[in-house]
TrEMBL record:
Family: Belongs to the sigma-70 factor family. ECF subfamily.
Domain RNA polymerase sigma factor 70 region 4 type: 123-174
Lineage of the organism: Bacteria, Pseudomonadati, Bacteroidota, Cytophagia, Cytophagales
Name used for this protein in its record: Sigma-70 family RNA polymerase sigma factor
UniProt xrefs under SUPFAM superfamilies: Sigma2 domain of RNA polymerase sigma factors, Sigma3 and sigma4 domains of RNA polymerase sigma factors
Pfam families linked to this entry: Sigma70_r2, Sigma70_r4_2
Positions of transmembrane segments: 177-200
Keywords: DNA-binding, Membrane, Sigma factor, Transcription, Transcription regulation, Transmembrane, Transmembrane helix
Organism: Spirosoma taeanense
Amino acid sequence: MKNLADEELVRLYIETQKNAYFEKLYERYCDKVYRKCLSFTKDPMRAEDLAHDIFLKLVVKLSSFKQQAKFSTWLYSITYNHCLDHVRSPHRHQEFYVSEEWDRLDLSDDDGLAEIEEMEATRLQQALQQLTADEQTLLLMKYQDDISLKEIASLTNTTESAVKMRLKRSRDKLRKYYLEGIVFWLLLVIKAALAVRWPFRH
């Protein structure tokens, strides 16, 4: 069973309803889904609850999987949507965290990623959290999870050209917030330096 493709496991589970096939899918993806949930919440207990809910939702949704995208991409779309619903709650603070995987992406097909990678991680995190949940999700899907434009378009029910435009706008906003953060901290450093140089100046 370990050599069966994800899509074959889905087909067999739908046809036979044998738990062994679903358990294999769970075994393959439970850690990845949990880590994705953790990137949204930074709270292990909340991440576990979200991951548990996602796999319960997956059981119900498996029959609707049409192989328009890879199973992993389809599962990640469910994960993203569930986590987005969670952080959009008016009682929740919007929290997204850049995975360490961000620093290990392939730049051979660069369409803005190089610029993002050059951003210092802490300030990138701060800038990212100033974007809307949808903007953050789009950037993370493309640059952290390496989901193709075609797959993103399919998952979001839009066109590739629309995805490209939204990505560009999100990158531009991210760059703006990132640079504003640098200027803010630079001003603080200059102010502190002047205070040390002229401690009695009023």
